[in-house]
Structures are given as structure tokens and as C-alpha cells.
């Protein structure tokens, strides 16, 4: 949808546009259509709303978004194939980082579209029933994008006005102003949106309430966070999966546990892969790429070859030893999240190894040397993967996050997946309620919410052993529980930042990431492309600590 809008001349040039004025003027608007003529019809306005959703795909399911939101934390470090070590290991992180530049550009383009839609909605010819719903969607999306912006970069540029033409200045706006607008938009969205939407992936009342609960928690408004979380938990449209592992089956993408998703089509042509004819501003890899990023290099091991089932291993991120140790032996979420065994699938195999036999075993635990010596398969145990101090010894072989695998891909090298991204699911709402209760001093109630998830996570016959007591409920325990439940789901960096634990927990638990970490890196650097483009350079400067 984004490509259609640009090809019909509706590209607005904001201060964040990276194209030159000459290129934009020469390349677009062959039809003479303008925003004033298109967006004043219900059909035209639908294209605006649909396009406003599409920018989420630049973050959710994409390597840029995973690097900004998951890596550089206590639970992931760099695999050998890592591209953005400056984000993961804070290695000379500066405004030249292209992942940050891409997300800045796309999110501000999305903000501009939302601003334009909200200001134009009264003239769009929408029915009295439809108008508040579309406004609710746009306001949710504006709040959603601004949250990513303000938490990533701090008090940077803010506006609720549509930008037309080239703007060469930027403002510095207090974080509180961002959140005032986020809360205003989300309250309107929650009031206006229906409980269900006819089109999957559209924001609903429950999604707005769940995101509002997350925002209240972020700002320390614990009573409000609890009330909003309880409203979502009372919604019978949502239900926890009985089995944690079932969440990640490709046949179960429409699970009732998912409250808000970024929807990817099974027809990959309808997603966001760049195409010089139809989608010149699409993403270079398109669709959901999570299945590529967390996999160890298995396809060069004896008895193994790359196949669809085991995935295409980009070897970008590996778990910290700390993350693997968070899962107790009674917790089925480990097996539901990680793969440790690869079975022989190659025509050429070691002597005595049959097709389907174990070819590679990567364990988070120590394997006795005497036992390893009796195996035909290759073993990588705790002391082979990690050094005694927790730093990575082998960045190629490790237990691999399997949540996002997609065996339905058409070919073994296909980088695109039709897997939807679960942005907010019901389990997180239980954890929001638990954290709010803890901060309000209600430790029993907090433990009760956490135990709902731990009961679901328990292996057969181990539910009682998985229960916690009120005395065990601390902020660190909740962050540990969020890691066990939500690892890889593009929320970790935000969790650590909002709780004031980012620096502390990286230094305590992720020694590879801690080496270059500086106190100012609770914010990311503003893209240099932005700083170069503006004229008020003395007023709008780089975030503190960055060059």
C-alpha cells in the first residue's frame, strides 16, 4: 500500500525524507492526484489507513527491529554472522548505524501519515459508524510509533501536524510531551475501537487497552496499569494457549492469545519486499525474517545439510549463558523456545550414522567427557559454548531459538516467512498486572498472576513445583520471568530500560555486551543523516555521549 501512495504522488516530504527534492519531483505524481482529491473519499481514505499500518513491518519481523529491541540486552549477544555489533555489543555505536537510520525514517513517515489522516478525517466522507473506528486506528498507530521513537531516542522531534513540502528544522521536545500525546491518543483509541475487527491485524479495543497498560507501567502509573490490564484479562476474546509450544506452530497463527499482531500474508508478493516496479521503497528482505536470525550454523556439520525444516542459519544472535540458565528443569518453555538437537539429513554421513539419527547436540548443560567420547554425533556443551566467565567461546554453535521457525517456506533458501509477529499477547498482560500489583504492595496478587503463566509452562506433573510464593516476587524476578516467557519477542530492551535495569543487568549477565557499554547508552544515537539534513544544528544536536 505504501508503494501505491507514493506512485500516485502522495509522498509528503518531511524533514526526515532521505530522497532529494529533485528525485521526488521528477519521479512521482504522473496522474495529478493529490491528497486533497484522494483522501476526501472513503475509498481513498482507506488507502491512507492501510498504509499507516504498513510501516510496522519495518520493525516487527525485521533484523533492524530485532537488533534495536532484543540485542544489546542481558539475554542475547552476537553470533558469528552478526551485522550490527555496534547495537549488540555497543562497539563504537554512532549515528552512522543504518538500522537506526532506517527505523527513524520509516517511523517518522508513518507519524506524518497518521497526522495527516487524523487532521483530514472529518472531510473523508466516512459514515458516522466508521469514522470513529478509523480515527481510533490512526491514533493507536501514532501512539505506537511515537513510543518506539521516544524510548529509542528520547526527547527528539515531535509534531501532531501533517508536514507538506520540505522542512529543514527539527525540534527537541520533552519526553513528557510525547507521553501526554500517547495517553491522549490511546484513550481515544480504546473508547472508539470495536471489540473485534472484520480484518485480521487491525487494532481493536483490547489491543489499545493492552498497549495502554504497557504505557501506564512504563510511566510508573501502576494503579492505571493494573486496571487496564484487568480489563483485558476479563475479555473473553483472549485465551492463553494450554501448551506454550503451540503458540509457535505455523498452523496456529490466529491464536486467541495474540492481542495485537503485525500481519504477514501467505502470498509473499503482498508483503513488503522491495521491487523496483511496484514497491521501490520496500524492505530488502521483505516479510518476516525472524526465522533466519537466531539459528546456529548447523549445515556444515557431519551428517547435516541445509533444509527447510532446520532453516537457513544466518547465525546473527546467540543466547547469553544467563538466558539459558533462567529456565529450570521443570519449565517447558525452554523446549518450547529452543532447539538443541539436529538430526542427520545428508546423503553423506559419518560411519554408523543413519538418516534421522542425532547428528549435532548443543546443550546448555555440561556433558561428561566419557559420555561424549562414546557418541557418533558432535556435541557442544556448556564449557564448549561459553567460557567460565560467561563470555561466548563458540559463536557458531549454541542452542537456537526455535519460536520463529517456518517449515512452510517454499524453498530452503527462502528468506521470507508468512509468520505473523505477536506484538502483544495475553501472557504479557498477566505480567503487566503482576508487576503493577507488586509495585502497589500486593505481593500475593502479583504471585497469583505469575503463577497462571508458570502453571501453563510446567512440564507434566510439575505444576506444583513451578509455583512461586509472594516472597519471591521482586522486580528482578519479574524481569527473569519476562525473559523466560517473551525471549526474542522484540520487547527486552524496552523492559530493561523502563525498569532502570538496562545497564545493571547487561553488566551482570552479558559480559560480551558489557565491555564497551557506557552509561549514556540508555538512548540510541540520532541518525547522522538526520543531523546532516537540518539547518538548526546548534539546537537539534546528537544525543549525549555520541559523536
What is the CATH first-level class name of the domain at 34-193 and 491-546?
Mainly Alpha
The parts where pLDDT drops under 50 for at least 5 residues are 1-31
| Overall mean confidence score, pLDDT | 93
The percentage of residues in β strands lies in 5-15%
Number of helices: 24
Number of strands: 9
Order of strands across the main sheet: 5-6-7
Instruction: Give the name of the CATH architecture of the domain at 34-193 and 491-546.
Output: Alpha Horseshoe
Supply Rg.
24 Å
Structural class based on helices, strands and sheet pairing: mainly alpha
Give the quaternary arrangement of the chains.
Answer: single chain
* Major sheet: 3 strands, mixed
Gross morphology is: globular
Helix content: 40-55%
Distance between the termini: 37 Å
Query: What is the CATH topology classification name of the domain at 34-193 and 491-546?
Result: Serine Threonine Protein Phosphatase 5, Tetratricopeptide repeat
InterPro entries: SusD-like_N, SusD_RagB_dom, TPR-like_helical_dom_sf
Domain SusD-like N-terminal: 96-217
Family: Belongs to the SusD family.
Protein name: RagB/SusD family nutrient uptake outer membrane protein
